[in-house]
Write a structure and sequence with these properties.
single chain; alpha/beta; Rossmann fold; 7 helices; 52% helix
């Protein structure tokens, strides 16, 4: 009987090993969900559908055969406060692997206190990580007509927060765009479709490492 038991165990060992290997491989290769929580700059305001940087990101992932799903939960006019309020339900519904937080521009345009925006973003990072997601912060600058002191404090807030919470940061999503009036819609606030490949180019180098992480 002992001999037969050992034979059965020997026969089952390769099966168990194969099962464990398959489970580990599936866990590693499982598609990632990228949740983008942003404002009009990510919601394709004034653009044809599929022309914004989030849609271009989806195309880039497909072209590079990266198994990832994009959920664009961006809303025009969104502030950090609104994003903070909406995020828990989004995390519960989509269970993302990565959360891209592109918020703050509307806080700045309304002249809202920088510490309040920082607190909201900090809370969003905490909530996302609590749900098991990695976080990418996307920074923004204010035009100089908002006052040098406010603009400097607003921009610096993103870098300070990034270091404090140890989250990667795309420093300025409109780098290479903000100083070119021909890349903006008539409102001078929202970039044209031609600017969005540049925007994606500013974000991609900081997002790509998160896609490679387990």
């Amino acid at each position: 009987m002992v001999f037969l038991k050992k034979i059965r165990e020997a026969l089952w060992l390769p099966v168990v090993a194969l099962f464990l290997f398959s489970a580990a491989a599936n866990a590693y290769s499982a598609p990632k969900t990228i949740l983008v929580v942003g404002d009009s700059l990510s919601a394709e305001y004034g653009l044809a559908r599929g022309a914004g940087w989030v849609a271009l990101l989806e195309q880039k992932l497909q072209a590079q055969k990266i198994d990832a799903r994009i959920v664009n939960a961006s809303v025009s006019g969104e502030t950090t406060s609104g994003g903070r309020t909406r995020l828990p339900a989004l995390l519960s519904k989509h269970q993302p692997s990565i959360v891209v937080i592109e918020l703050g521009a509307n806080d700045g345009l309304r002249g809202l206190p920088v510490p309040a925006a920082e607190a909201n973003l900090r809370a969003m990072v905490k909530d996302a990580r609590g749900a098991g997601a990695q976080v990418l912060l996307v920074g923004m600058r204010m035009p100089p007509n908002y006052g040098r002191d406010y603009a400097d404090k607003f921009f610096a807030m993103f870098g300070l927060l990034s270091k404090d919470v140890k989250a990667p940061l795309a420093p300025f999503m409109l780098d290479g765009v903000a100083d070119k009036s021909e890349l903006f819609q008539p409102d001078r606030l929202h970039p044209l479709a031609a600017a969005h490949p540049i925007i994606l180019g500013n974000i991609w180098p900081h997002l790509q490492p998160l896609l490679k992480a387990k």
